[in-house]
Amino acid sequence: MTDPLHDLAAAGVAIWLDDLSRPMIESGALAEAVERDGVIGITTNPTIFAKAIGAGEGYDGHVRDLALRGTAIGETVRLLTAWDVRTACDVLRPVYDRTGGRDGRVSIEVDPRISGDTERTVAEARGLWWLVDRPNLYIKIPATDAGLPAISTCLAEGISVNVTLIFSVARYEAVLDGFLTGLERRAAAGESLVGVESVASFFLSRVDIEVDRRLAEGAGNAVERDRVRGQAAIANARLAYGVWEDSVASARWHALKGARPQRLLWASTGVKDKALDDTRYVVELAGPETVNTMAQPTLRAVADHGRIRPDTIHAPAGAAQAILNELERLGIDMADVATTLEAKAVASFEASWNELIASVTGQLERAGAGVMPAEAVCPASGQDAPKGAPAAAAPVRSGNGART
Fold it and tell me: Measured between alpha carbons, how far is 71 from 122 in angstroms, rounded to an integer?
């Protein structure tokens, strides 16, 4: 591990990779990232899989086998993605064992097209948990209004959850409440809280992009706008961390014996504004009990020239709130920013999912098989399940991997 990445880990940050593909697994590149860069977790999303599977490399044999079996397109997509995630879980299993289940985890996301349906989200989460069948899995569920109760239900059933698409402190507070509610329900049912883990993915670069776009069109003079340009996301994140600190100090949290706190995960950490330092969403948010997931270019930038300072998550008292207050004075409605970004993110992932389906459909056709309809969302829905697999009533594993 290079000195900057070593220093980042020493500052309490879990280094995760925001990327996954079959060639990465089969070439040994993923194992090398674990060994060389200290990567101890992986996040995926529909866009990552659309890029990886759409490229076709490494998937031909598997697609041909599925074509010969006559699998429906929805099942095919899930089997391809689940294979990658399950194998990545095996690569990271030593990390999972070494950290007592805290890290060494790989995330797979529910179909974004059902983000507005609580029951279907829960059904898919159960099915994915069954299908991947690894204790070091995270099911990614978006923090939409419909996703929040699904998060609680999954945690109550022992399914570890990566809550994604969080853009505001207010929504993060609702996520924390959903996390605690899920654990409370599990404890009330007499189930163990050991091994049930969760992270809350708080997005960064997308916030600055949207805020800075509005600043360019809004009130105030150039000096005032420049003073807060590129500052919203980090201020937002630092305030969220303060909420996290209050939560772990609360009586409600301390009543949950055997549980571990839901960590904040800094997501969307690639800097889009070329005028800003390309490591800023990493070096400015270093702090205990946090996770930072980075795409390959950001990870390499941090390894090459990141200047890590301990505890940058704590800004001077009131500084983060002062930035948001100034943005409000300049006419930036952060609540509307969050609502807009959530809708855009869901739509973007839906588009990636549809792109993935179209790509896999083409590959199946080239493999010489007719393609069954794609109406079924995934195996978890019970409409398009693998042979012999249970549907919505798939057996759920507890946090330690035991069947329940």
Answer: 23
Helix (H) / strand (E) containing 171: helix 169-188
Which residues, 6 or more positions from 92, have their beta carbon under 8 angstroms from its beta carbon? 34, 40, 41, 42, 103, 104, 105, 106, 136
- Whether the model clears a pTM of 0.70, i.e. scores above it, the answer is yes
CB 128 within 8 A of CB 378: yes
State the catalytic residues: 140
Q: Could you give the dihedral angle defined by the CA atoms of residues 293, 26, 124 and 107, in that order, rounded to the nearest 10 degrees?
A: -20
Q: Are strands 137-142 and 105-109 parallel, antiparallel or unpaired?
A: parallel
Angle 97-98-103 (CA atoms, 0-180°, nearest 5)?
75
Write the DSSP symbol of residue 403: B
Contact 345/206 with Cβ under 8 angstroms? yes
Distance (Å, whole) CA 242 – CA 289? 12
pLDDT tens per residue, range 330-354: 999 999 999 999 999 999 999 999 9
Predicted pLDDT at 54: 84
Secondary structure (DSSP) of 353-391: HHHHHHHHHHHHHHTT---B-S-S--GGGTSSPPTT---
HEC profile for 274-324? CCCCCCHHHHCCCCCCEEEEECHHHHHHHHHHCCCCCCCCCCCCCHHHHHH
Q: Rounded CA gap, 376 and 189, in Å?
A: 33
What's the angle, vertex CA 144, arms to CA 140 and CA 146, rounded to 5? 95
For residue 364 the two structure tokens come to 């199946």
What is the residue-wise DSSP string for 70-139? Answer: T-BHHHHHHHHHHHHHHHHHHHHHHHHHHTTTSS-EEEEEPPGGGTT-HHHHHHHHHHHHHHH--TTEEE
Q: What is the pLDDT of residue 56?
A: 74
